[in-house]
Structures are given as C-alpha cells and as structure tokens.
Design goal:
Layout (H helix, E strand, L loop, with lengths): L1 H30 L2 H10 L4 E2 H8 L3 H13 L3 E6 L2 E6 L3 H8 L6 H4 L4 H9 L10
Antiparallel strand pairs: 1-3, 2-3
Helix pairs in contact: 3-4
Length: about 130
C-alpha cells in the first residue's frame, strides 16, 4: 500500500520537476555565452544604451544589439525608449548576483596560468573577492 502511494506521489510531482528542469536548462543555455554574461554583469550597475555597452565590452554595437534582443525575448532584459535612444536594464537585478555566486563553481584559478583574471573580473564588476586577503 505504501509503495502504491509513493508511486502516485511521484507521478504527480514528476511532470512538474521535468517541466521546471527543462525551463532551467533553457535558461542556462541562454546564459551560456560569454558576451551575454558580460552584458548582464555590465547591466548590473544600471541602465545603459547599446553604444555605452558596446564601448564598455569592446564589442560591435550590432553584436550587443543581437544579444540584447535575445535577452529581451526571454524577459531577462527590459528596454526603455527615450526619443531615438534605447536604454536597457536587467528585468531582475539579482540575476547578476546569481551569476557572480556561480564563480566558486568555475574552479578557474586552477585552470588559468594567471589566477589574477578572476580577481580582475570581480574588480571590474565591482565585487570584492571573498577569497582575497586584502
């Protein structure tokens, strides 16, 4: 009897878990591009236009626009128009924090010849390295 009840509970929860797992996988696929991660981190400091983002990230404005369109389509970025100017901001500001929270899982210090890269990235993103002795 207990086994039957457990199986029924599993049947009820499995579709939800499967749906949520697929959605999360889609989100991670969307974020699995270095330019998009850099865009999100740049927008963590506030609203910016395409030109400002292109200059800050040293990317062509057309590429920035394409990434922003994709992030907007998935409701991760919002757009505000002011005349002919378009300004972008994160729809959920904590997304940038979530990405930064993933850095300990990267284990980048062991794979890079110069471990300073992660410290430099954190400094550029305005975050103090929790492992730093400063």
């Amino acid at each position: 009897m207990q086994v039957c009840e457990n199986l029924q509970a599993l049947e009820v929860t499995m579709p939800s878990r499967l749906i949520v797992s697929r959605e999360l996988a889609d989100l991670l696929k969307l974020l699995a591009h270095a330019d998009r991660l850099r865009l999100i981190e740049e927008l963590r400091l506030g609203e910016k236009d395409v030109t400002s983002l292109a200059i800050a990230l040293q990317l062509p404005a057309t590429r920035v626009s394409q990434h922003l369109a994709l992030l907007r389509a998935h409701r991760l970025v919002e757009e505000r128009r002011d005349g002919r100017s378009h300004f972008y901001r994160l729809a959920h500001a904590h997304l940038a924090d979530w990405i930064l929270d993933a850095l300990p899982f990267v284990d980048i210090r062991k794979r890079l010849e110069e471990a300073d890269h992660i410290d430099t990235a954190l400094a550029l993103w305005g975050v103090q390295d929790p492992n730093s002795t400063h």
